[in-house]
Amino acid sequence: MGELSKECLHARCDTKPINTYSQNQNKAENGIKENKRATRREHDKKKSPLCIWDYTNQYFAMIRSHTDLKLPQLMNKVPETIMTGQTLDILHLMVFDNWEVVKFMDRASFPNSHKAYGR
Hints:
Number of helices: 5
Oligomer: single chain
Mean pLDDT: 81
């Protein structure tokens, strides 16, 4: 049993085999390709280390799932809204850019908290 199968079993999620070269598989592959392109462009632009590649990839996947993809089958809804039925707030994705330096309160040293810089 592979790692994905174990994760799906743990999450009580059914897996179903798909037909080779099906239309849905090709659409999924195109989405993954676009996500990887966006990740690569972001890393080239920000000069961020490769060790955060998976976080950047997850960031762009979240943006894609929280924004309109202009697909007719989505009926002008975002994928996450179709899955959960709730209107989503994307503010947490738009306030800070990926790998941006931010200033935050360090709560570990309370009550002598001070502002620190981080990513």
